[in-house]
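Do me a favour: review this protein, sequence plus structure tokens, and tell me how the chain folds. Record follows.
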Amino acid sequence: MNQKSVLIGMSGGVDSSVAAALLKEQGYHVIGATMRLWTYSDSCDINHEGCCAESAVEDARRVCDKLGIDFYVMNFKDMFRDKVVDYFIDEYKRGRTPNPCIACNKYLKFDAMLKKARAMGIDYVATGHYAKIERGADGKYILRASEAAKKDQSYVLYNFTQEQLAHTLMPLGGYNKDWVRKKAEELGLGVAHKKDSQEICFVEDDDYAKFIIDYSDYKPREGDILDTNGNVIGRHRGLIYYTIGQRKGIGAYGRPMFVMKIDAENNTIILGEKGMEFSKELVADDVNFISGVKPDREISVSAKVRYQAKCAKATLYPMEGDRVRLVFDEPQRAVTPGQAVVFYDGDIVLGGGTVE
């Protein structure tokens, strides 16, 4: 039997490092690759520790040396700027809140990198994501949430196609973070206790407003803050400084107020009182169903409207094109245009889309 080969994306962190080691133990011919997306010279200072940092490349290289596997650096900077950074900036300019990790997974990690691997004659790509890929009884591939609920990353992976799942491996789906760090220690990997990256990889100090100003021609404009009756109750300092559901930094009004809507066309922000930040339903577009088949009638699902949210029961109604309407059993807080909504059947990811 021919040995199967796999190209694994190496971020320089503990997860992808252990994933590479597990794949080697499982008998694959493993090749490590760091995707050159965005370096500290583009936006970060030299001490930045995110996965775009120059040090991440060297960490990944050292891990591959330790494991005795080949290592490559692949340049995807132009595509990353086009598909992720420009999209990120444009969404904020439209008064929306984007999720760049989802765009990166969709266009780069599981599309461009997979195409590169296949062109090199490599059978699979792999990452250190906490999620599981299985093949169902009907022959179709299934994406499941990780057994480690606190680390589950299935929310950002809903754009998979059947073809991509057939050529993707995620060896960490059955493990938790403590086990992964212990495994890295046993292997003598220097990244065993490296901090997890919590920020957007290309935005230093998570200051996305400064990033948008520095890397685009956008200049924030002050505008009116309105109540839900259209009365002017204050002034805002620029739309990019606000997001749906925000309470802090919006001014004092003698009672709790929340950002209800960001109106880019009129350069206004609408505030509502406590309780108004909850929504019973939403419409999503750019929807992907992992099975490749869109439901032809309403179905019961559970859904998440943000990465850290709990799944909530809902009914999904298909609409024309790549749109769906979702009606929740219980209202959900801060349903935010631009963010993802992801649909589940138990722990199986059915698909997801972008909140309109």
Notes: Confidence is low (pLDDT under 50) at residues 42-51. The longest strand covers residues 278-289. DSSP finds seven helices and 17 strands in the chain.
